[in-house]
Amino acid sequence: MHSKQVQFHVQPGGCLKGEGRVAGDKSISHRSVMLGSIAEGVTHVKGWLEAEDALSTLAAFQAMGVKIERGGPGELTVHGVGLHGLKAPAGELYLGNSGTSMRLLSGLLSGQPFDTVLTGDESLSRRPMKRVTAPLRDMGAVIETTEAGTAPLRIKGGHQLKGMHYDMPVASAQVKSCLLLAGLYAEGETSVTEPAPTRDHTERMLQGFGYEVRRDGDKISVRSGGKLTACDIDVPADISSAAFFLVGASIAEGSDITLQHVGINPTRTGVIDILKLMGADIELLNPRTVGGEPVADLRVRSAKLKGIAIPEELVPLAIDEFPVLFVAAACAEGQTVLTGAEELRVKESDRIQVMADGLVALGIDAKPTPDGMVIQGGRLGSGRVNSRGDHRIAMSFSIAALRASGTIDIDDCANVNTSFPTFVSLAKNLGLNISVTE
Ligand SMILES: O=C(O)C1=C[C@@H](OP(=O)(O)O)[C@@H](O)[C@H](O)C1
Ligand SMILES: C=C(OP(=O)(O)O)C(=O)O
């Protein structure tokens, strides 16, 4: 656990120039450890995200008897134990700040013969888990939670799951993935329909491991009885981490950057679509497919942004990028309106309220609504904002300094290490005048 005392201090102005590679994709990194662990054979991973969230998943599988070796930067060797080879851990599985770890593991562990207890930090212990425990119980899982339906999750092993169809009420890749992983252990077929497309890394990676996944329109299904065969995984750079620099280079006059090897899976590129609708200048160079995932280098040059009404169908495709998109909106000419994004209220923080508070503190007219925000583009001032321990908010306000009139000081930034530990050094290399105190 780490201190809340980490502060970022960012001097105003400047622009971003040069090339760089942001940290590995967090969603794909989690899944590489999970699927590699339950595969047969040895899986080699490169480009893996060495950050606290992914390390929580890694530690959980090590605690369940999987041998995972860490090589050079971003390299993992996962000695798979097969679908039925996990062992009872000696203690609780502590998953830190990571919603993805907890929700995906709840599905995978409901099908095991042993008990597990999943715990997390203060933020993760507040986040809603009924969205996974309710359908898992319908499949026959036995899980105890707090009265509020939150962690710790006490999962009782040894209950045979039964496949079922689930019509997901929220567009959530974590819920979808949880149920597909439970489906590997459930009798017959398990299927889900999603109300809107969400990231499909689980489906792609299961197929990469030779496991059949069917998609029929918005319905995705798996059957138990198959096996996963080890494979090599090349994790692209995370578009959610790239997003800070896509916005930074767009809003800071004179910027011209290229971000290498960024994952551009169409279920993740909402941020590019939204920024382009706002007038951003983003080019996709050298598009290619790496290990079943599309990748490109992204060149971004500064542009005059304008406010827009964000199309609701893009919301799940940019769900983690709204904190920094709100900064883009604050720097755009005119009004930006976001609706249909109530999910933002149950992330690591209430990202609607916390971002509105910070923007208002910096002099921007930002009005939170139950499911989004209305932002008038304006002049960013200076001052002190609190990230409330939310990594994406700390990084978003750092980027805002490129257009601020004075220094921005940001409190409670330690959790940047959950997704993007190299943020400060890369930001400095590209031209952001940022320093850290502890
Ligand atoms: O499946 C995943 O890897 C993720 C899904 C999203 O959550 P939801 O499924 O809650 O939308 C996203 O916010 C999270 O950062 C990662
Ligand atoms: C919501 C996020 O992650 P998680 O749900 O895994 O905590 C995020 O990284 O923005």
From TrEMBL:
<feature type="binding site">
    <location>
        <position position="351"/>
    </location>
    <ligand>
        <name>phosphoenolpyruvate</name>
    </ligand>
</feature>
<feature type="domain" description="Enolpyruvate transferase">
    <location>
        <begin position="11"/>
        <end position="424"/>
    </location>
</feature>
<comment type="function">
    <text>Catalyzes the transfer of the enolpyruvyl moiety of phosphoenolpyruvate (PEP) to the 5-hydroxyl of shikimate-3-phosphate (S3P) to produce enolpyruvyl shikimate-3-phosphate and inorganic phosphate.</text>
</comment>
<comment type="similarity">
    <text>Belongs to the EPSP synthase family.</text>
</comment>
<feature type="binding site">
    <location>
        <position position="26"/>
    </location>
    <ligand>
        <name>phosphoenolpyruvate</name>
    </ligand>
</feature>
<dbReference type="InterPro" id="IPR023193">
    <property type="entry name" value="EPSP_synthase_CS"/>
</dbReference>
<feature type="binding site">
    <location>
        <position position="347"/>
    </location>
    <ligand>
        <name>3-phosphoshikimate</name>
    </ligand>
</feature>
<feature type="binding site">
    <location>
        <position position="26"/>
    </location>
    <ligand>
        <name>3-phosphoshikimate</name>
    </ligand>
</feature>
<keyword id="KW-0057">Aromatic amino acid biosynthesis</keyword>
<feature type="binding site">
    <location>
        <position position="174"/>
    </location>
    <ligand>
        <name>phosphoenolpyruvate</name>
    </ligand>
</feature>
<feature type="binding site">
    <location>
        <position position="31"/>
    </location>
    <ligand>
        <name>3-phosphoshikimate</name>
    </ligand>
</feature>
<dbReference type="Pfam" id="PF00275">
    <property type="entry name" value="EPSP_synthase"/>
</dbReference>
<dbReference type="InterPro" id="IPR036968">
    <property type="entry name" value="Enolpyruvate_Tfrase_sf"/>
</dbReference>
<keyword id="KW-0808">Transferase</keyword>
<keyword id="KW-0028">Amino-acid biosynthesis</keyword>
<feature type="binding site">
    <location>
        <position position="320"/>
    </location>
    <ligand>
        <name>3-phosphoshikimate</name>
    </ligand>
</feature>
<feature type="binding site">
    <location>
        <position position="392"/>
    </location>
    <ligand>
        <name>phosphoenolpyruvate</name>
    </ligand>
</feature>
<dbReference type="GO" id="GO:0009073">
    <property type="term" value="P:aromatic amino acid family biosynthetic process"/>
</dbReference>
<comment type="subunit">
    <text>Monomer.</text>
</comment>
<feature type="binding site">
    <location>
        <position position="127"/>
    </location>
    <ligand>
        <name>phosphoenolpyruvate</name>
    </ligand>
</feature>
<protein>
    <recommendedName>
        <fullName>3-phosphoshikimate 1-carboxyvinyltransferase</fullName>
        <ecNumber>2.5.1.19</ecNumber>
    </recommendedName>
</protein>
<feature type="binding site">
    <location>
        <position position="174"/>
    </location>
    <ligand>
        <name>3-phosphoshikimate</name>
    </ligand>
</feature>
<dbReference type="GO" id="GO:0003866">
    <property type="term" value="F:3-phosphoshikimate 1-carboxyvinyltransferase activity"/>
</dbReference>
<feature type="active site" description="Proton acceptor">
    <location>
        <position position="320"/>
    </location>
</feature>
<feature type="binding site">
    <location>
        <position position="99"/>
    </location>
    <ligand>
        <name>phosphoenolpyruvate</name>
    </ligand>
</feature>
<feature type="binding site">
    <location>
        <position position="27"/>
    </location>
    <ligand>
        <name>3-phosphoshikimate</name>
    </ligand>
</feature>
<dbReference type="GO" id="GO:0009423">
    <property type="term" value="P:chorismate biosynthetic process"/>
</dbReference>
<dbReference type="InterPro" id="IPR013792">
    <property type="entry name" value="RNA3'P_cycl/enolpyr_Trfase_a/b"/>
</dbReference>
<dbReference type="InterPro" id="IPR001986">
    <property type="entry name" value="Enolpyruvate_Tfrase_dom"/>
</dbReference>
<keyword id="KW-0963">Cytoplasm</keyword>
<dbReference type="GO" id="GO:0008652">
    <property type="term" value="P:amino acid biosynthetic process"/>
</dbReference>
<feature type="binding site">
    <location>
        <position position="172"/>
    </location>
    <ligand>
        <name>3-phosphoshikimate</name>
    </ligand>
</feature>
<comment type="pathway">
    <text>Metabolic intermediate biosynthesis; chorismate biosynthesis; chorismate from D-erythrose 4-phosphate and phosphoenolpyruvate: step 6/7.</text>
</comment>
<dbReference type="GO" id="GO:0005737">
    <property type="term" value="C:cytoplasm"/>
</dbReference>
<dbReference type="InterPro" id="IPR006264">
    <property type="entry name" value="EPSP_synthase"/>
</dbReference>
